[in-house]
Amino acid sequence: MGRLCVFTRIHTRNRVGRCCRTNYINAMSESGFALFATAIGHCGIVWSERGIAGVQLPEGGEGATRRRVQRRFPAAHAAAPPPDVQRVIDDIVALLAGEPRDLSGVKLDTGAVSDFQHRVYAAARAIPAGSTLSYGEIAERLGGRLLARDVGEALGQNPFPIIVPCHRVMAAGGKMGGFSAPGGVRTKLRLLSIEGAQPGGTTLFADLPLMAPPRRRA
């Protein structure tokens, strides 16, 4: 724990609906990063004077998560989180342990995202816990369903997973879409289940594990 970082965004194109990877390099005022343990593994969080600048989901282990943060934020140095950031960490930890939390009021540093991404993330943050929208429904709110692919790409570059709840956004026809976290769609289902969401009118699987079981070799 404990280091400082500055960054600027490098555009990467992900598959539509793949949440939540983006690369960054130096370009802002000083900010800190810290790792913290959760029920799905070690996450990372980056902050600046303007708010939370990024969240990193687990990458298979603490060391892997740290390396991923350092690739996204090459100038990063670990630092003890200030009290407001620690509260966000505590809420994320509680949420991933199965306790409902409202992160809609967390202040974000959106200086490295485009205007369109900002609008998509604001729309995603407006989805109440326990509810879901499709990429097309968000696109419609932003100007038309033809923007659905752009919405999916913006969410696929979401720097703030969990805080910007891309897990609440579904593919067409009630399909899950992607989720770049340990367990993939299982984790997405688990998060939705924690929040009491029932996409498509079916009850989600409350007992799904947070981590996907290893595949058996044939």
Write the layout of secondary structure elements.
Blueprint: E1 2-5, E2 8-10, E3 23-25, E4 31-38, E5 41-48, E6 51-56, H1 62-72, E7 78-79, H2 83-96, H3 115-125, E8 133-134, H4 135-142, H5 148-156, E9 169-170, H6 185-194
Parallel strand pairs: 8-9
Antiparallel strand pairs: 1-4, 1-7, 2-3, 4-5, 5-6
Helix pairs in contact: 3-4, 4-5
Relevant terms:
9 strands, 218 residues, Arc Repressor Mutant, subunit A, globular, Double Stranded RNA Binding Domain, 6 helices, two-stranded antiparallel ribbon, disordered N terminus, alpha+beta
General description of the model:
By secondary structure, the protein is an alpha+beta fold. The protein has two domains: 2-96, Double Stranded RNA Binding Domain, CATH 3.30.160; 115-199, Arc Repressor Mutant, subunit A (Orthogonal Bundle), CATH 1.10.10. It is 29% helix and 17% strand. It has six helices and nine strands. The chain has helices spanning 62-72, 83-96, 115-125, 135-142, 148-156, 185-194, and strands at 2-5, 8-10, 23-25, 31-38, 41-48, 51-56, 78-79, 133-134, 169-170. It has a five-stranded antiparallel beta sheet. A two-stranded antiparallel sheet has the order 2-3. A two-stranded parallel sheet has the order 8-9. Helix 3 (115-125) crosses helix 4 (135-142) and helix 4 (135-142) packs across helix 5 (148-156). Residues 1-18, 20-29 and 201-218 have low confidence and may be disordered.
